[in-house]
Amino acid sequence: MFDTSSASKGVKFALLEGQLLAREIDRTAFLGRAIPTFADQNGVMQEGPGGAAVTNVRIRNGRRLNVPSSYLHPVMDQPNLTLLTGAHVNRLILEGGTITGVEFEWQGKIRAIKTSSEVVLSAGAIQTPKLLMLSGIGDRAQLDRFGISTVSHLPGVGQNLQDHPIIGGGLWEAPGPLPTRNNAAEANLFTKSRPELDTPDLHIWHVEAPYLSEVTGRHAVENAWSISPGLVRPESRGSLRLKSADPDEAPEIHANMLSDPRDLAALRKSMEITRALGNAEAMKPFVKREILPGPVEGEALDNLIRDGAMSMHHPTCTAKMGQDDLSVVDAQLRVYGVKNLRIADGSIMPTITAGNTQAPCVIIGERLAEILKG
């Protein structure tokens, strides 16, 4: 299902219309060694010492594919499927400790759907814990604040929030215009911040445009491109909680990115690698000057990392699977303490995957389908 461009053999991590150049980076430019390349960014590349690859994209017959086109559109005519767009789920309906349906607002009216078997909640790592808490499933002390009766006391709901921070802090000005092609971010590298790690913890992207945060964005200039390092094995943990019992109010999110000093240490190394890549011999045709990070060290480098920190849009782990006190679902994705409720989205991950989360979320959905068939 996944069609991937194959990278030529050799060491390469450079820009040319969205493809990797077949140029060799100076062996002294990157931690004293060459960078191996792979035809696929997954599998061996991520599970071993790391390497570079062209980003995976799903293309068939010249067209990009997405999850709805692959899973939903082919079955839209089935009589047992009803799709409502523009509906806003308020809460789950419970009778005793049993989920019996879903309350939602649609076309200006509050409505309810009853279930004859089970409800599968798949609202993502932000909305899934919010809906659980609005329905009385969560930490009793938090629910009591808003007069929500506790149906199942699960302190882990909304806890253990994990995401991949990416730093908008690597920026170079090119000698002239470099029009973006394809994804505008097709070259990526997995590597380690420390050699003793079993697998890579850094995911570094080449972006054919300025990729900066709200703070570092002031450094953007015309004809610029970026190398943006990300951390895929973060130690920091965040949380979210309700701000009220109003379903229309967004939850309060505490991302807590970089709160663990180990994450900041790893990203310091990532910035060193970023500079080595951007200033390597193979990149000189594309460099007029380095803008960020420059030769900064110590507190100045830490501040640049904090200022450039953004989300890779991979929030996960807020209703995790497991058996400890913070676990929310069991191995069959059933929510503890209630009947007829399962969760199938990124919130059930105990630990964030060391890479993009879309495909793992699809696998979670496929695994639940197997469970329900059984």
When the domains are counted, the total is 2
CATH topology of the largest domain: Glucose Oxidase, domain 3
User: Could you say what the CATH architecture of the largest domain is?
Assistant: 2-Layer Sandwich
Largest sheet: 6 strands, antiparallel
- Spans of 5+ residues with little confidence (pLDDT < 50)? 1-29
Describe this entry's structure for a reader.
- The chain has 374 residues and is an alpha+beta fold.
- It has two domains: 44-64 and 172-310, Glucose Oxidase, domain 3; 91-161 and 315-373, FAD/NAD(P)-binding domain (3-Layer(bba) Sandwich), CATH 3.50.50.60.
- The protein is 19% helix and 21% strand.
- The chain has seven helices and 19 strands.
- It has helices spanning 44-47, 67-72, 124-134, 140-144, 261-278, 298-308, 358-373; strands at residues 51-54, 59-60, 63-64, 88-95, 98-106, 109-114, 119-121, 137-138, 152-153, 165-167, 171-173, 187-191, 202-207, 224-231, 239-241, 252-254, 289-292, 309-311, 341-343.
- The strands form seven sheets. It has a six-stranded antiparallel β-sheet.
- β4 and β5 (98-106) form a beta hairpin.
- The radius of gyration is 23 Å and the shape is globular.
- The two termini are 25 Å apart.
- Mean pLDDT is 90; it is low at 1-29.
Quick structural overview:
The protein is α+β, with helices and mostly antiparallel strands and 374 residues long.
